[in-house]
Amino acid sequence: MRCLEFDRMVADLDRPETGSELRDRLIAHATGCPACGRRLEVERILTAALRRARIEADPAVRGGVEDRLRDAMRAAAAPPQRRTGRRTASAVLAATAVLAVTAWLARPHDPAGEVTAIESSDQGRDRNRRASPAGAPAGPRSPVSEVRMDRAGDAATPAPATAEPSRRTIEGPTGLAIGDATLPSEIATVFLPLPGSERLGLESGHIVRVALPRSVLPSFGVPTREEIEGGMVEADVLFGEDGLARAIRLVGRR
Amino acid sequence: MVLAVGMRELQNLSDEELLGLVRATDEDALVALYRRHQGALFRFALQMSGSRTTAEDVTQEIFLSLVRGPIGFDAARGTAKAYLFGIARHILRRQGPHPVGAVPLGDASERAADMAASAIPTPLDELDRRETVAAVRQAIAALPVHYREVVVLCELEEMNYVDAAALLACPVGTVRSRLHRARGLLIKKLTMEPEDQTAGALLRAARCLR
Q: Is the minimum CB–CB distance between B104 and chain A shorter than 8 Å?
């Protein structure tokens, strides 16, 4: 063995991959060559120092990791069911809304029917008051109402409250105040924003009365009690001019 | 198929078998794999990053990645251990370069166990040893990344050349040459470092024999 070869191989001397034959040759060369003998000693000192560094390495990892791993594994198995449920609920809502809109469009036109026009500005309020004389008895109204706002996201002024005492102002999904369009015998929740509706904004739109399976309500963040989970509930869906639903509220009888 | 295997039985399974169970969302298999390799992976991340916090995050992230994404382990390309180290390396690289700093010493219990294993060390011996370890770790931390990787894998974690080559995606000859070069740099650094009093002094003493 030559010194150049020794120099190339000496780092492998104490490695498990190194065969006994090569090891013997390296040691034999180092024994006969003083320079390579010193080199071998240096390499062995370094190997010993590295072993010390290995032994004293700290393997302690913070606690709770095993629990987090278990939680992550359980969560990884669970989400597909939830996503499917939400998709189903959205599909049911969309289908119901389409049916409701179609039915409303197909109904005989009644020019005398009341369509509540609600505007957010004072001017709009005044105009609305003129359209609906104060003190007039509140007759049955169409379940479809029109909502107009100056700018998307602006807090609109409460709807005219003079027509009848039962009319209430309802806080909309993004701080919007939307005039109540419920009948006097009805009560309603606030409008709950639908997922993704914040991005769409809302200049004006329509409220459409729909009937929904109670089972889809949790998808909109509406808690329901298990014992009354079945059946249908009435709701108002707020649609923008683009035809996309923005928010939903539940309607009940007094 | 998810096998109902207790933790005791899982300990007898190979890494490859455990990975197969993890694929089938067996959380016990995931924990068994974690317990088996977390120490080595933590040390690797610690040596490569120089940060205990980073090392802890990386160690956890390795196993969370097995839960989140598809497990791309292929037994034909290397061992499961090398696969886990490969994930660690990928995460560390994704975080960008880490500042070179001193790697913290091991905890007191480990040192105590090590002292008990050795032949009745004096306090001076213990001081010397700690200084040696600190000097070696600082020298390793100062190496360029591709040299540091082979030193940590092949020297500190005793990984063989074939596994290291599979992990680093390079030929075995490249691993050998990098390790050779890295050891040369370590010797040079430990010999020239003025403040080291143990490893460097020992190496200097060896050279003085010329």
A: yes
Q: How far is CA A108 from the centre of its chain?
A: 41
User: Which residues of chain A are under the pLDDT cut of 70?
Assistant: 55-63, 78-93, 96-185, 220-230, 254
* Structure tokens given for B192: 């020239």
What is the per-residue pLDDT across A90-104, written as a single tens digit (0 to 9) for each? 666 677 666 666 666
The answer to whether A246 touches A240, Cβ cutoff 8 Å, is yes
How far is B202 from A46, CA to CA, in rounded Å? 9
How far is residue B139's CA from residue B151's CA, in Å, rounded to a whole number? 11
**Distance from C-alpha of B44 to C-alpha of B149, rounded to nearest angstrom:** 8
Instruction: Measure the CA–CA gap between B149 and B163, rounded to whole angstroms.
Output: 13
Query: Does residue B71 register a pLDDT over 70?
Result: yes
Q: To which H or E segment does residue A77 belong?
A: helix A65-77
pLDDT one-digit tens code per residue, B130-164:
777 888 888 898 899 999 999 999 988 888 898 89
- Predicted confidence band of residue B190 (pLDDT cuts 50, 70, 90): confident
Which B-chain residues 61-90 have CB contacts (< 8 A) with chain A?
63-64, 67-68
Q: Going along A47-190, which residue ranges are E strands? A: 117-118, 145-148, 169-171, 177-179, 186-188
Closest chain B residue by Cα to residue A55: B114
Residue A226: which residues within 8 A CB-CB, separation 6 or more? none
Longest dimension (CA), chain B: 66
CB B98: neighbour CB atoms within 10 A? 15
Could you give the CA distance from residue A92 to residue A98 in angstroms, rounded to a whole number? Answer: 10
C-alpha dist (Å) from residue A33 to A20, A42, B207: 20, 14, 14
Do the Cβ atoms of A222 and A188 come closer than 8 Å?
A: no
Contact B111/A at CB under 8 A = yes
**What letter would DSSP give residue B153?**
I
Residues on chain B touching A6 (C-beta within 8 angstroms): none
The region that residue A77 occupies, defined by phi over 0 for left and psi between -120 and 50 for alpha, beta otherwise, is: alpha
Do A73 and B183 lie within an 8 Å CB cutoff? no
